[in-house]
Fold this sequence. Notes:
By secondary structure, the protein is α+β, with helices and mostly antiparallel strands.
Amino acid sequence: MRVSIDSDLCIGSGQCALTAPAVFDSDDDGFGLVRPGSEDGRGDPMVKEAVRACPVQAITFAEE
C-alpha cells in the first residue's frame, strides 16, 4: 500500500494531519504532506479515514 497527496489538489485544510498525525503533517506553507518513512501508511487504521476526510480528495491510498 502507498499513500500520497496530490500537491496540485491540496488546499491545506489540515484534515489529514488532524486525522492521522503519525502519517501526515503540514509543510511550511500549510499544505499536507506524507511524513518521510510513512509512505506505506505504517498500518495506521486512520489513514483511510484521512482519505475520506480530505475535502478535495487530494489523498490516495492504493496498492502498488
